[in-house]
Structure formats: C-alpha cells, structure tokens
Amino acid sequence: MSCSKLRVLIVPSWYPMAPAPSYGVFFREQAQALARAGLGVSAVFPEMLPVLRASEFNVARDVLRGSWETDEDGVLTRRVRSFAPDRWPTVRAWYWTAACEALILRHCARHGSPDLIHAHGAAWPFSAGALSARAAAAVLRVPYVVTEHASVFLENRPFPYGQAVRIRQGLASAARVVAVSRALAARLRQWVDEDRLEVVGNLVDSRFFTIPDMRPQNPTILCVAGLVPNKDVAGLLRGYAAAFPDEASPVLEIGGDGPERASLETEVTRLGLSGRVRFLGHLDRNGVRDALWRCGLFVLNSHLETFGVALVEALATGVPVVATRCGGPEDVVGEADGLLVPHGNPKVLARTLRTAWQARDRFDPVGLRERAVTRFGDRAICNRLISLYENVLAGRAR
Predict the structure, then answer these.
(1) Matching fold, domains 3-203+377-397 and 220-375
(2) Distance between CA atoms of 54 and 84, rounded to whole angstroms?
C-alpha cells in the first residue's frame, strides 16, 4: 500500500487545545508531518478540563454542541469538551477512555474506518490513548500501534495492580509498541514481546526551529522545562551558582512554569543570583524559539527523560547542550552535540557548565542542526513510521 493511500487515525493522550495550546504539541506536529508526507491523517481528542475551570467556559454550549471538527494544517481533528474532577484520576481516566472510544467511532461513521490507528500513551491513568484505541480497533477490525512516552516506566518502582492491568491491556493487542528511546524500550520489554517493540524518537519541526540569522551578542544559558521535581531546576541553580560565581556571568533564563516556581525564586535569592536568573514563565512555541535564538548553551538537568524534545529543538537551532544521563538524552546528545553528566553530582554539573560555556564557539551550529534533523527531522521520523505502518498492514494481509 502506498503512503498516499494510507489512512491513519491518531489517538493522543495529550493534545493542544485552546486552554493549553502547548499541551502535547509534539503529537500534533508529528501528525501534521505525516499529512505533509502524503498520508490521510485524522485525529480525535476529548478535551477533559478540570471542574474548577468550568466557570471559564460556556459549559451549556459545550455540552449541547457535542463534538466538532476542524482542519488543523491537513489533519482533520474531531474534539469534544467536557469537565471532570482532577482529584479522582482513575474516574477521570475511565470517563476519558469512554469518551475517546465514542469519538473514534463517531468519526469513523462519518469518514470511514482508517487503515490503522496510532495511539500515544498507555501509562494508565494519566495516558489512556492505548485503551481507547484497543476498544475501537476491535470494533473497526483494524490494527493499532502505540507509542509510549511516559517517564513513569523509567522509575524504579512497581505499578499498583489496577494500573498494571490497564497498561498490559492497552499494550497486549497492539500490533507494534514504539518506545521513544532505547532506555524506555529496555523497560517496556517486561510488558511487550521483543518482536513487537521498536524505537522511534520524537520529531522536531525543523521548518520552525532553525538557526537564527544572527548569533546573539550577549548569549544566555537556557533551560526550558516544567518547574516540577523531576526537572531538578533547583539543582541546576546550584550548579550554575558554583560554575559562575561572579557578576560577569552569563544570564540563566528558565522557561516554563509549575508548582516549584515560588520555591525556586526563593532559592535564587538564597544563592545570591538575583538579577542573573530570569524566569520567563510559560512559553508558547514562538517564545521557546526566541529564547533559543538568544542563548549560547541549553541545559536540561532532569532526573528522568524518556526522550528530550527540548534538547532536539535546541540542536535544531544550532545550540550545543548539556544534559543528564537519565534515559532519553543518551540517544540525542552525541560527542559533537554537547556534554552529558551524571545526575545528582553538583560539582560535575558545575564543572561541565563552565567547560561547555567556554567551549561553546567550538560547536558548529550547522553541524548541530544537520545531525539533529537527519535523526529527528520530519523526513527521518515520518519514513520510520510509514515503514512501520506498512509492515503492520503487510503482516495483517498475510
């Protein structure tokens, strides 16, 4: 089957929506890239918002209008909006799964069945796309594949019994399970047979993330991450303070928001970094690119990363990176792209930040970009996925 005739339905566990335009944006970018590659791509997504935010929306209108369709740069997308309490994640997950299955079947009743369903996420209860795809695929009699992204699989702890059952259900019937890094694939082997498991990284929008026309005159050090414990921005602040103790140091910009913001601002004051650290808050795609265009070094100090989309975006703009060895970055950062450090060693982090900053001009921006795009650009990732889809359908035909 040629890709121009192949119809794929995307079932993401997270997807951009008006209240959260950056939520799961890389899922939509991958879907749009597949559409540009010639596939017939559509997507469904139930927008499940917290009950506490219901006052911000016209709830009656949303309930009465039911689902709606939009063409999002070549991806026909069907959505429905509802509200559920965040305090009961399992109840919310069941509700979302049922709504998503109904949305898939409604979409297919109008537009016909796809050749294949591609779901993202099986880590119940916070990503339920795999279970929805499994239920709908059984009704439609089409195969489905699952791409897993969740860092919870990298955590060294057992899943509660109910969660483990739902994860296994979502993955057991999948024709293929895709891990976004080798580290994640190693952990998924306890859930998935080796012959169904593949590694395909996330896609970077190489048309959007480009090398700037002019290099910045006063480059910064940049971190773009959620302000949550896993990203260990507090550890980065301590490493930065040790690496650059004087006032002539490069400014550290931190893009992102989250529950740790107040404590991190307090830490900045405690470390005597006021005026040398800027919190940029939540950044949209333009904001991320603008921040990358004015930086000379990108840093990610996470405990766990299944991939590291932010690292690839930095490399695609010609910026070298420093990252922790925490799973995904090992697949992204080669010797010519930047430096990897063990997590939890502040002295090594400080020394590496100082070394990388002093050596930043030795990294060739064009080379950084070319390697990133060759491995993770639209063409590279779409070719891998199209080959996977065609192999699944060829095996089903046999």
Answers:
(1) yes
(2) 9
